[in-house]
Structure formats: C-alpha cells, structure tokens
TrEMBL record:
It comes from the Eukaryota. PANTHER family: STRUCTURAL MAINTENANCE OF CHROMOSOMES FLEXIBLE HINGE DOMAIN-CONTAINING PROTEIN 1. InterPro entries: HATPase_C_sf, SMCHD1. It comes from Nipponia nippon (Crested ibis). This is Structural maintenance of chromosomes flexible hinge domain-containing protein 1. GO terms for biological process: double-strand break repair. SUPFAM superfamilies: ATPase domain of HSP90 chaperone/DNA topoisomerase II/histidine kinase. Pfam families: HATPase_c_3.
C-alpha cells in the first residue's frame, strides 16, 4: 500500500469501527468492505462503492403471500404503500429528543429525472450494515442482525401509543420493498448516522435485479 514504516494507519469497517486484534474475527468476514485510513474519522476524498449480494430470506418461502398489505379486495392500496414508506422514518425518529420531522414529497418534474416519492426525516440515520439489512427481502425488523431493532423477541406494543406514531406499520420487513416496487421501479436510500460524518446510499432497482 506504499505505507512508510513510521506512518500510522488504521483499518476500519464502513461503519468506522476500528479493526483490532480483539475484534478481528468478529468484524472481518467474507464480503466485508474495509477502509485503510490515517485515522478513524478521516474524511473520504471520494465516494466508495460496494455491491451487496444476498439470498432471499427464508421467510420468502415460508411466509410468502401471507402478509401482503395490499391484498385485501376492495381497498385502495396506495395509502398503505405510502404508509409503508414512512415506516423507516417513524423508527428512525422515535427516540428524537427534539422535533420529529417527517416529510413526504411527490416530485413530478421530468427535468430532474422520472417522477418520484421522497420521504425525508431527521432521525438517527442508518449505518451501511443497517442499509444492507433493509435490502434483504422479508428479513423482519424484529430479527435483523446488527440493527437497532433486532431484539424484539418479547415485544408488545404499548396500548397508549398510537400505531401511527411508532414504527409498527411494517411488522415483517416486507412492506418497504413491496411499497417501492408497487409504486415505482427503483429505490434510493440516503442516510447519515448521527454519530458519523459518512453518508451511505443504497440503490435497488428492477433493472439491476
């Protein structure tokens, strides 16, 4: 790598966790992307890109078709699809100490590309691992590894808390992806964790699939 013998450097994950002798076996696994930096908080001079490969979660087979939010006959599915799209924002802002801001924008100006639905919030943001987990079809938010909502084995929704104000809209980790491809052809998620200077971006499209 052209590193001088007297030069200090660190190796980190894309979540800026430094690789050490103690956590090497935990953090360094097949397919993981690493940064070689001068310091953990070093600014990146250019964007980095990695391809995410994953198999469909087993729930695709064992629960396929059971929880389709727009399957009921006689109902307009669009409101359900829009509700699913704000589920991540509800989850991300649920622990805000200040104002919770969630915006839904409908963009129809062809000069900026194809029409789009944009959901913008001021939540805690997602790491690259959390974005990866979101991409896995039918991977429930209650069982996602390394996610901030992974331990919900005994979860019971508090009765005084309206479902519209928490993150219970999507129970099975399927709604967000289905909503995207029910409404349009692709999804672009841009997120910056509150404690990081890095901005992570995930793109899913029917064309790529």
């Amino acid at each position: 790598f052209g590193i001088a013998t007297d030069e200090n450097f660190v190796i980190t994950t894309t979540n800026r966790k430094e690789i050490t002798e103690d956590n090497f076996s935990e953090l360094v696994q097949d397919g993981v992307t690493l940064y070689l930096l001068q310091s953990v908080d070093q600014m990146l001079l250019s964007a980095t890109k990695e391809r995410i490969d994953f198999l469909p979660h087993y729930d695709t087979l064992v629960k396929s078709g059971m929880y389709e939010y727009y399957a009921s006959e006689g109902q307009n599915p669009l409101p359900f699809a829009l509700a699913e799209l704000i589920d991540n924002s509800l989850s991300a802002t649920c622990q805000n100490t200040g104002i919770r801001s969630i915006q839904i924008k409908l963009l129809f100006d062809d000069s900026h590309g194809k029409p789009a639905v944009a959901v913008i919030d001021n939540g805690r943001g997602m790491t690259s691992k959390q974005l990866n987990n979101w991409a896995v079809y039918r991977l429930s938010k209650f069982t996602r590894q390394g996610d901030f909502e992974s331990d919900h084995s005994g979860y019971v929704r508090p009765l005084p808390v309206p479902r519209s104000l928490n993150s219970d809209i999507s129970y099975f980790g399927v709604g967000g992806k289905q909503a995207v491809f029910f409404v349009g052809q692709s999804a672009r998620m841009i997120s910056k964790p509150a404690d990081s200077q890095d901005v992570h971006e995930l793109v899913l499209s029917k064309e790529d699939f």
